[in-house]
Amino acid sequence: MIKLQGKKVFLSALERDDCRKIWQETEFDFENPPDYFIVGASVEKADELYSDIQSKQGKTQIRLGIFLPSEDGATLIGDIALLDINWQDRACTLGYGLTKIEYRNKGYTTDAAITILRYGFCHLGFERISATTLEHNIGSQRVLEKCGFTLEGRERKAVYIAGRRYDRLMYGMLADEFIKLHGTKISWSS
C-alpha cells in the first residue's frame, strides 16, 4: 500500500470503511456550498463509491485518503484525487474534499494537494494538472494559488445551487511550474 507523506498530513489508499466514514462525516457548509454533493444517500452509496474507486484506481484516477497522524494511528479527514487521467496527453484534474468544517482552513488541503501534485508531476510524469472551483469558494481558490496554479478562465453562471447561479473558475498548472516552486523530492513508503 502506498503512503505519501506531506508536512502535516499523509495520503494513503482508501478502504471500504474509510469511504463509509467520509460518507457519514462530511459536513455541508451552507456558507460555502460545494458544486457537487449528495444529500440523504445510504451507506450502500458509500460502498458504491468504494467499488468505483477500485475499478478506476490507476487507470483513470488515483484517489487517496487524507490522514492526520496521531499517537494512536491516524484520523481520516478527507480525500484527494487525480481524476480524468489522460495518459496519452499526460494530463489530469485535481479534486479534493475534507469531511468536517473543523478541519478546513488549517493548511491540510494545501499540504495534501502539494503532496499528490508532486507524486503526479514527479513520479507519474504528468505535464499538466487542472482544477476547478466555484467563485464563492475562497478557501479552495487559496489552496490552488498556494500550490502555484494559474487562473486560466471562468465559466459564467455554470453551476446552480440552492436557487443561485455561480461562476466556475478554471485553474491549471504545468510540471515545470510546480517543480520550480516545490521541487521534486517525494516522501513515500509502501
Give me some keywords for this one.
5 helices, 9-stranded mixed sheet, alpha+beta, 31% helix, 36% strand, 9 strands, globular
Structural write-up:
With 190 residues, the protein is α+β, with helices and mostly antiparallel strands. The protein has one domain (3-189): 3-Layer(aba) Sandwich (Aminopeptidase). It is 31% helix and 36% strand. The protein contains five helices and nine strands; from the N terminus they run ββααβββαβαββαβ. It has helices spanning 16-25, 43-56, 108-123, 138-147, 175-182, and strands at residues 3-5, 10-12, 62-70, 73-86, 91-98, 128-134, 150-161, 164-174, 188-189. A nine-stranded mixed β-sheet has the order 7-8-6-5-4-3-2-1-9, sandwiched between helices. Helix 3 packs across helix 4 (138-147) and helix 3 (108-123) crosses helix 5 (175-182). It starts with a strand and ends with a strand. The mean pLDDT is 90.
Chain-wise SSE layout:
Blueprint: E1 3-5, E2 10-12, H1 16-25, H2 43-56, E3 62-70, E4 73-86, E5 91-98, H3 108-123, E6 128-134, H4 138-147, E7 150-161, E8 164-174, H5 175-182, E9 188-189
Parallel strand pairs: 5-6
Antiparallel strand pairs: 1-2, 1-9, 2-3, 3-4, 4-5, 6-8, 7-8
